[in-house]
Task: structure prediction
Amino acid sequence: MKVTKNLAKIISKTLKFLQRRLVIVVLLILIQVVWMTYMVTVIGENYKLVQMLLELFSLVVVIYLVNKEENPAYKLAWTIPILIFPLFGGLMYLVLGDKQPARDLRLRLEESISETEFLLGQEYHVIENLKRENPQAASQAVYIDQYGGYPIYQNSNTKYYASGEAMFDDLLQSLRSAKHYIFMEFFIVSQGYMWDTILEILKDRVNDGVEVRFMYDDVGCVDQLPYKYYKELEKYGIMAVAFNPIKPLISTAWNNRDHRKVVVVDGHTAYTGGLNLADEYINRIERFGYWKDAGLQVTGDAVWNFTVMFLQVWNAIRKTDEGFGAFLPHKHHKADFPGKGYVQPYADNPLDRETVGENVYLNIINSSVHYVYMYTPYLIIDNEMITALCLASKRGVDVRIVTPAIPDKKAVFLLTQSYYRQLVEAGIKIYQYTPGFIHAKCFLCDDKIATVGTINMDFRSLYLHFENGVFMYQTEVIPQLKEDMFETFEQSQLITKEMCAGTLPKRLAQSMLRILAPLL
Result:
C-alpha cells in the first residue's frame, strides 16, 4: 500500500513537472536540437560534398568572427565550439550567434525610440554647471547623453534603500498615493505576498480612475506566472504586456530579456534597483540566506528619463500613445523640485554595439582617484574590465568588490570565483557577503559619484539585456550608500590569496567555464 502511494506521488509530481511551461518549451527546443544535429550528421556522412560545404561554411564563420568588431571573449567562446564541431558549428552560430533581438521586435523598438528621442534634450545650463564643478563627472554625463540618449538633471532628489524590505514600504505608499498613472516594468514577478499586496493596490487605484500599465519579461516570469497572465491583469482594468514572449523554437530571441526594474508614479516619483517582485527580495521567504538588495527612489525632473524609457518599450509592443506630453513631471506636480546634486537615469539595450552600461562602469573605474567600491551578484568580466580594475588598484585606488557567499547559481558562482586570484594579486579587496546572497548592483567612487541600477557585471547584463541605472553626482545617496557599504564589508569575508587556490578539478572546471562565459 505504501509503495503504491509513493509511486502515485512520484507520478503526480512528475506530471506536474512536465506540465510546467518552461519544461515544455525546453523539451521542444531540445527535440529540435537533437533533430537538427542528427540530420546534419547523417547528411554530412552520406554526402561528402555536403560535408565539405558545411565544414567550409564553419571556416568562413570563424574568419568572419575573427574580423568582426566584437568583444574578443565572445569571439573565442564561439570559435572553439565551431572548430571542435565543424560539421554543424557554423549553422549553430547562424541560428544562435546574433546578439540583437528578433528583427520584428528590433524594428519596432528602433522606430519607437527614434520617434521620441527628441523629448530627451539636454538642458545646456545643467551640463555647464556640472562642467564647472567636476569636468570628469560632466564627461560621463555627456557620454550617457550622447550615446545612451538620456540627459542629466538638477532639481531632483534621491533616496537609497539598503534592503528590499526598506524600499517596499515606500513603494507601497507611493502606489497608494497615485492620482493619475502608474507605470511598472519588471523582469521577475512571482505570486506571493509582495506581488499580491501590490496587485490589490493597483486594482484599487484603477477603480479610482488611475491609469495603470504593467510590463513583465516573459522568460523571467515563465515559471512564476500563468501563461498569458497579462490577460488576467486586463480583467482588472490594468493595461499589461509581456515583453518578448518566448516561443518553443531555436532562436536568439531567448537572449534579449527585459531585465529593467522601473516604477513611475504620476511622473514625479520613480523607483529602481535590483528588486524584482518576489518574496525573497523583501526577505519574506528565505532562499539563499539573507537576500541583500539595493533600491533607489528618484523624485523631480530626472523622473522624465524613466517615463520615456518605459513608454518607448511599451509603445513598441503595444502602440498606445501619440505623444508623451500628458506624462511630464510638472503636469501633476506644479511646484519645483529642489534637489541636491545631479541625477541621470539611463538605459542600455542590445539594439546597437554601444555597451552603455559597461562603459559607465569603466568610466567610473578609470576616473577614480581614492576609492571605488562595488556590489555585484555575478563577477563574469572581460579583459577590458579586468584591466581597468587591476590598473586602478595598481595606481593606488582602493578597489573593493562585494559578491555573494551563498550563490543562486552554482556554475555562475564557480565562474565568479575564477576571477578572484588575478584581482586579489593586483591588490583588489574582494569580499563575500557571509549572511547570504547579495543581489545589489551599485558603484561608489571618491565620495562624489555613484550608480545604482539593474546592471550586473556579467556578459548577459552588459551585452544582451535591456537594463537601466542611475548615475549620480553629489546627491543625498552618496553618504547613504557609503555607510551601507562599510556595514556590508564588516559582515563579509575578505578573500585572501590562499583562499583562491582551489583543487585541480575545480580549476579545470573554472577554466572551461571561462571560455564559455559569454554564452552562459
Observations:
- Residues 30 and 404 are 32 Å apart (CA to CA).
- The chain has a mean pLDDT of 89.
- The longest strand covers residues 211-217.
- The longest helix spans residues 21-46.
